[in-house]
Amino acid sequence: MKVLIVDDEKHVREAIRYFVPWEKYHITDIYEASNGQEAMRIMQEQQPAIVFTDMRMPLMDGAELLEWLHSHYPHTKTIVISGYQDFNYVKPAIVYGGTDYLLKPLNSKQLIAAAEHAFKLWLEEEQERHQAHRQNMQLNVLRPLYWDKMLSDLVAGQASFQEVRNSLCEELGMPLFVAECRVALISLQGADCRLLHRFQGDVGLTSFVLANVCNEVLAPKQNGFAFRSWQGGADIVLLLWSAVAEAEEEMHRINESIRQTYGVQMDIGLSLPVAFPEGLQRAFRQARQSLNERNLLQREGRIHLFREQSGSGGPEKNYAYETQLDKLRVAVLSGDQDKMERVVDEWSDQLAGLPLLTESQFQQLQADISEVLRRLRPDGEISFELCYDSEGLFSVENWRSQLKTLLQRLSEGNAQTPDNRLVEEIRQYLQQNYARDMTLQHIAERFFISRENVSRKFKQITGENLSDYLTGLRVDKAKTLLQNTNLRLSQISELVGYEDEKYFSRVFKKSTGQSPREYRKQGENYIS
Known about the structure:
Elements: E1 2-6, H1 10-19, E2 29-33, H2 36-46, E3 50-53, H3 62-72, E4 77-82, H4 87-95, E5 100-103, H5 108-155, H6 161-172, E6 180-187, H7 192-198, H8 203-218, E7 224-228, E8 236-240, H9 247-262, E9 267-270, E10 274-275, H10 280-292, E11 303-305, H11 321-334, H12 337-352, H13 359-376, H14 396-412, H15 418-433, H16 440-446, H17 451-462, H18 466-484, H19 489-495, H20 501-512, H21 516-527
Helix pairs in contact: 2-3, 8-9, 11-12, 11-13, 12-14, 15-17, 16-17, 18-20, 18-21
């Protein structure tokens, strides 16, 4: 806390310095001014919390100073010290929020009481301001989550439009009367090689950033709002309530903005215009279907419009689908790696020659292959990565390579020990929950193991302390946000699991050798 004493009489300033118990309130910075103009300069440079001021001074008197303080530093507490009881001197102290009015010559007890009263008031209000600031920060973090959940429920038919109508109008800019709407969906999987990898595979973080990009495009005309989906089949949902006839052009603008920002375009499913709000669920289904039934083999066009005639039951049967599955069974049973690779090559060539392969058809194909492999190797870990190239488009070649690698691993067996699996599960849990308050005890209880065993096994398998791994994970997430967003440091610190911005900055600097601001500035210089 800083204090300023303003009086043209030096002995008055010295008396105030002498009598007030500054050390009791840990006050070490005490400034002096002989008139209002000097006081203004010190206020602008040091911003003291408490001001003792005389009323009659040269150049600028106390009344003018009180008015200026009230306008520019409303939280500052003022104590007026004057040799006059005239109402014209008392009035400014009352009007401009003075905490006390003391008469000269100064009474030490009254001076100390007035000072302690001002200190107490300022400290109480400062605590309230900090609490309000923290609540606002929490609301800023929670408010987007509220809209994600509410709008996801709304388009899924699990929430009442009437309950959120006023909020949609007041907070999101939706017109009071809307006759039609359209729904668009974005799935992140098509951008796996570029956008999702840029955010270290974190779907939640990537969705958060991507929704912000969409809303930056939608905001000027308030045509709609993008939010993170809580429903299956999409990561980002765009509810478009204005200019629905121009929705396709709006999606092209959004895709261009994403391309300019991140160098990749997205696959976007777009519904037909429907009545609002009763057609919302149908529009959501249409947009999801247009994504699921897009032709993966098509290289042009990333905006996929809903077609009434869309829809087919499963993988195209104009190639020997069941025959290929049988060949795969035999090849895996034989354990002959060359035979397995020949089956994969033959299957890949057939896929590449198809006129149509939809997302839903391909997912069914993957599911059928997984089922075959599970029957052959029930203990094997069977998972498919996303088969997309550097442009975010489906790649038969990537699928061919991935399936060959998977078959080779299954044929060799899974040599992973129980401890390895436990540590891998812990790492996956940390990657998914790094933003939460995380303790060693919490992790131990989560995996039904003692704290000592958690720490020991993690260090034994990875060669790294668990706490260091979590810190490194959080710092890496923070780096990504610092480089790719304009979020404030306080927001970034909360998003990566630190409630205290200053503590986050210390951890970040200890890990990287740079403060978060220095790291962000360096990234800007590098990009430019």
